[in-house]
Specification:
Two copies of one chain form a homodimer. By secondary structure, the first copy, chain A, is of the alpha/beta class. Chain A has six helices and four strands; from the N terminus they run βαβαβαβααα. In chain A, helix 1 links the parallel strand 1 and strand 2. At the A-B interface, helix 1, strand 4, helix 4, helix 5 and helix 6 of A face helix 1, strand 4, helix 4, helix 5 and helix 6 of B.
């Protein structure tokens, strides 16, 4: 499995990673997090991201999971998009990270991994009364 | 607008609320968060939730936004489901809370609010390379 880097404003990325690891400790080596300070220099953060990606790319590819499209985390991540190497998926939630546990043994590309996370994330967002009725 | 209560394991709920308020400070009075400690007594947390809901229901209704279906937060919230009063939406992410800003002036029911959050959340989860290509 390729590694996942959660990238958000504030400590959200760290809390998402911590929650995922509490539930699935086996994800430890495959799940990283980078928090953008609310007040930051974009160039400093881009350089920090570049270094993390360089390290993670030794494993063949990486998926960056950001908080939201149009946000600073996505804007910093998008220039690193590279077909077959670096993919970005937006709107990260906890169920997407939980999905990783079932992807661990599969040999998916960054795009396939991102698509699996997208599907898991979209399916995880449910209105309880509607879901329980059907 | 009815209030939203973000309910998750760990500090995720607090970080989601903090991030949303950094971006949309006007949500302050409409957005609450409750964090379940990783080690907790379910009865204590249910009682805490019951008290928060009692207070929020003075405003006519509430939507509880949880981290994931099948998780402890959802399991504690679901017994409080009440048609027209209390709705639960799972898989909370930051874009769902951002959506609240546009719902503030609307007079939506708990179910309508939950459905609007669901739609916003699902639409926010995108694979960047696919989205940018189309």
């Amino acid at each position: 499995m390729i590694p996942i880097l959660v990238l958000t404003h504030g400590s959200l990325a760290l809390e998402l990673r911590e929650a995922a690891l509490k539930i699935s400790p086996e994800l430890e080596g495959d799940l990283e997090a980078m928090a953008l300070p609310w007040e930051h220099e974009a160039d400093d953060e881009k350089e920090k991201l570049r270094k993390i990606l360089k390290r993670l790319l030794r494993r063949g590819g990486v998926v960056i999971a950001t908080d939201m499209f149009g946000g600073t985390a996505s804007n910093i991540a998008l220039p690193f998009l590279e077909e077959g190497k670096v993919e970005v998926v937006t709107g990260i939630n906890l169920p997407m990270l939980m999905k990783l546990a079932s992807l661990r043994k599969k040999d998916l590309s960054p795009l396939e991994t991102a698509e699996a996370l997208q599907k898991a994330g979209q399916n995880s967002i449910r209105v309880a009364s509607t879901f329980l009725r059907n």
